[in-house]
Specification:
Number of strands: 11
Helix content: 10-25%
Oligomer: single chain
Strand content: 15-25%
Shape: globular
Length: 237
């Protein structure tokens, strides 16, 4: 298997299994999954998932692909061709948004994913969003996010235990920060907070992918639902 031109070559310390000495078809072992990239099929895999959920799709005048849920309250747009903005120096590939009403002018919240995000992460996000009866309400607080991450083996930042967490290998992080430019919420007031997530092979390495959203969509589930300061051990977009 020849690495794709857009794939990031990982350091040898990231390979957890040696190649067989007689291998004619080398296999690149990557663990955890968030370091493996999007396999170059982010648009196709996410599109297949949304089509299976009966979301409608049509091309826009900006050369993007817009998917809208059957109730018209959720949208997911493939933006890579239009290259509207960057996160962490990477082009944003997918925008997800919701509205409280079909005729609402402003989106209640937006989430942005750069190229390189594993497609499983984006499809799981959209499956959870599609399953919610009301996509713009019923979210928990920041502690819910950190509790879920902790249950998955992540640990909280010692200096920011209520707003930041890292995976055991320090190769990915999630933190609550001031919303970066162009990542907007329905609340127009300045100083709004939102979640940021990123992956990097090693401290100081270029980001593999980044994601950013307003606070609400990443605040976990409640019982009724189916650029700020620098983190101590890593960087945020």
């Amino acid at each position: 298997m020849v690495p794709h031109d857009l794939e990031v070559l990982l350091h040898s310390r990231r390979s957890d299994k040696p190649l067989p000495p007689d291998s004619q078809n080398p296999v690149y072992w990557v663990a955890p999954r968030h370091l493996a990239g999007d396999d170059g099929v982010l648009a196709e895999r996410v599109g297949d998932t949304l089509t299976a959920l009966d979301w409608r799709m049509w091309p826009t005048a900006r050369n993007t692909l817009l998917y809208v849920s059957p109730d018209g309250l959720r949208g997911a747009e493939w933006l890579l061709a239009s290259y509207p903005l960057e996160l962490g120096g990477l082009p944003v590939a997918r925008q997800v948004s919701t509205r409280s009403r079909v005729d609402a002018v402003m989106a209640e919240w937006n989430a942005y994913f750069t190229a390189g995000v594993p497609y499983e992460a984006v499809t799981d996000f959209l499956l959870a969003l599609d399953a919610r009866l009301a996509p713009d309400e019923g979210f928990g607080g920041p502690d819910v996010v950190l509790q879920e991450l902790g249950a998955g083996g992540w640990f909280r930042d010692a200096d920011r235990p209520r707003t930041a967490a890292f995976d055991p290998g320090f190769s990915a992080g999630v933190s609550l920060e001031l919303l970066p430019p162009l990542v907007q919420d329905s609340d127009p007031r300045p100083g709004q907070m939102g979640w940021q997530a990123w992956a990097e092979p090693g401290l100081g390495d270029p980001y593999l992918w980044c994601a950013s959203s307003s606070r609400r969509p990443w605040c976990g589930r409640t019982s009724e639902s189916p650029s700020g300061s620098r983190p101590a051990r890593s960087r945020h977009p």
